[in-house]
């Protein structure tokens, strides 16, 4: 098999928001690998769900100080007009995109009996429909059947379901649509993968939750944001290009029973 052509060193990341989040760690890692970055965020989500303000501007300053070109692209992904607009704006700012990494989500705890239709619909719009529209727009920038290097798309997922109905259900749908991309978009040179990082503390865990998650991991600890970023960096590299159409568990063995 011939070596794949290198991807353009440009990437669009969604759901960046806070500097201690997973997407920020991925941004730092890709910047270290020479990528220029378009960072999408939606401050009202951080305020509504996490009670924190997005500090993506400080992250951008940090990355620019290291020589990375950064475009900040706010937008609420519940609006179906936003995903293609983000891809277009990222391309205008940075040139053709080589990578799309979707870290955005709507995540509000609720169960079978108390989830509202409004909440379920927003989860679906953000977690599923927006991911589809982002991948669609990302693929459409590449003409089929050409010598283009194509691109790589990575989505973050979760297997949480109990008392987290709309989040877990829509993450399951996200997995299916992203993995289909590797087969449906092969003529455009697009490869897709999904990462399930297990529980990562980005500020939402209290001591009890942190201890419970650590206890369900063979090593007695939980992963950090850098453990996710390291896998993303590998999958976007030439060395990781043969990994395609996979749902990868990168969770330290979380909830894996002892044999």
From TrEMBL:
Origin: domain of life: Bacteria
Keyword Transmembrane helix recorded: no
Keyword Oxidoreductase: yes
Keywords attached to this entry: Oxidoreductase
Any one GO molecular function term: oxidoreductase activity, acting on CH-OH group of donors
Family, as annotated: Belongs to the short-chain dehydrogenases/reductases (SDR) family.
Name the UniProt record assigns to this protein: Short-chain dehydrogenase
Protein species of origin: Brachybacterium faecium (strain ATCC 43885 / DSM 4810 / JCM 11609 / LMG 19847 / NBRC 14762 / NCIMB 9860 / 6-10)
